[in-house]
Amino acid sequence: MIFDAAVCLKHPHLKQGHSVDEILRAMDDAGVEWAALQPFEATQKFNWGEANEEVAAACRAHPDRLVGWGALNHYDGPDEADHVTELGLSGVKLFTSWGFTPGTGLIERFYVPVAQRCADHGILFSIEHEGHMPTLGGAVYSDCIVADALPERTVVMSRCWTWGFWPDYLAAMAECKNLVMEIGVAPVSWVRRAVEEVGADRLLIGSWWPEHDPALIVTQVKSLGLSAEDEAKILGGSARRLFGL
């Protein structure tokens, strides 16, 4: 089973993916059985509640193919996480696109309360990595702060695509055992190293379609020469466990 943990509904800059039928066709073309939708358009329109409801409606219409991420403005506080839970979505993803991220000193004040509310509701929590705005402590310091604050809860590092930060990704995962990494198009040597050092059960794929073709990522994982068990974990097993499917 192939599970794409990051597919965009209404990408703010690309015309593809603005209808659920189109997303399902893209999944079928790539051999993806399950996908987690995310309301990426909200980073541009700030229509968090409306965008979350659209993702939830798509998931209700296709409960055998889709699960959903909700999103919110962390400066508004964690209350939208209550709405995300009521909608039946699987987690909250905080987007950092286009500089939409607090400074390092504010992570505890704004990110941790959202993560705590997600933990209270028993849903996932994720931070998107978009270009890695320079912050004190390095590229993944925000993930480590949240992971340390909630050591019993999984924190998903999403969109780990920047090649130069792979040492940071792996160092963070070695330090914080509750971090899980979503990978897209990535250097194969680093993916192999991640499997060796942290285990395939802490890796999952996310294409951010329509930005990347999920078939490309699937092909790359299959080219790594991993054991059948590890390959299956990365392509779907890890995500299925996290999303409770």
What does this 3D model show about the protein?
The structure is a single chain. This protein has 245 residues and is α/β, with parallel strands linked by helices. It has one domain: Metal-dependent hydrolases (TIM Barrel). Helices cover 43% and strands 15% of the residues. The chain contains ten helices and eight strands. The protein has an eight-stranded parallel sheet with strand order 1-2-3-4-5-6-7-8. Helix 5 crosses helix 6 and helix 7 packs parallel to helix 8. The longest helix is centred in the middle third of the chain and has 15 residues. 47% of the residues are buried. The mean pLDDT is 92.
Brief sketch in words of this structure:
This protein is of the alpha/beta class.
Give the total of beta strands: 8
Mean pLDDT value: 92
Main pleated-sheet profile: 8 strands, parallel
Q: What is the string of SSEs from the N terminus onward? A: EHEHHEHEHEHEHEHEHH
Helix count, DSSP H or I runs of 4 or more residues? 10
- How large is the radius of gyration? 16 Å
N-to-C span: 11 Å
Share of residues in strands? 15-25%
Helix content: 40-55%
CATH fold naming: TIM Barrel
- Return residue spans where pLDDT drops below 50 for at least 5 consecutive residues: none
The general outline is: globular
CATH architecture: Alpha-Beta Barrel
Text of the CATH class: Alpha Beta
Structural class based on helices, strands and sheet pairing: alpha/beta
CATH fourth-tier homologous superfamily: Metal-dependent hydrolases
Task: Walk across the major sheet and give the strand order.
Answer: 1-2-3-4-5-6-7-8
Number of domains: 1
